[in-house]
Amino acid sequence: MVLKIKRKAQIIITSCRAVTATNGKVTLGLYVKDEVLGVGTLTYINPQTKTFGALGHSIINEELSGPKLGTIMTSSIHGIRKSYPGIPGEKQATINKKTIGTIKKNTDIGVFGSVEGLSDFSAKTIPVAEPSEVHLGNAQMLTVVDSTRKESFDVEVIEVKTQNRKDIKGIKIQVTDQELLDKTGGIIQGMSGSPVIQDGKLIGAVSHVIIDSPDFGYCVYAMWMVIN
Fold it and tell me: How do residues 84-101 score in pLDDT, each as one tens digit?
C-alpha cells in the first residue's frame, strides 16, 4: 500500500503493509503524533525586544525529530517527585493553557521566541554576565516548586569552563540549599532553564542534572542564550 503524506508544505510518498484482522477486515495501524508537551522553566525575557530564552537545552522527541515551533504557557506546580541517586525526580504540574509566547527556534542551548505581552513578567531587569565574569562560589537559582511562587535557592558554582563556542555544560553547580534538598533531592526534571544569578547578574540556566548525584548539575552560560 502506498501512502501520500503531507507534512506542512512537504509531500512524502511512503509504503506500508496492511494486515487482515481476526474479523476479516483489512486493517492499517497508524501512530500519529504532531505535538509534544512538557514542563520546563523560562529563563529570561528581553523587555525591549519582547523575546525570550528558556530550557537551556533543546526539545528532543524521537517521534517528532525535534520540533521547531510551538508555544509557551503558564503552569502551576502541584507536586514534586523527589530525586534520588540514579532516579531523577520531576515537577508535577498543571498546564494552564494560557499562551504567553511563541517558540520560533529549538536549538542545542535552549528554545527561543517572542512573548505576547509583559504583564505576566517582573518589571525588574538585571544585567547578563560575560562568561569570564562567572567565578567559583555562591550563587542563587530561581525556580518554582510550589504553585506559581518563584523562589530563590542557594547553589554553589564549583566549576567554570572556558568556552569559545556555545555549549550546554559551561558551569557546574551544586545545590546547597537544605530546604530545596529536602523537598526535591536536588535538581529535577522541570528545572531546566531555571536562571542562576551571581553578584546580581544572570550567569546561566540549568541545563542538566547528574543523575547519580542529583544535587549536582550543569548550566549553559546565559550569554550564549542571549546572543543566540
Answer: 999 999 999 999 878 999
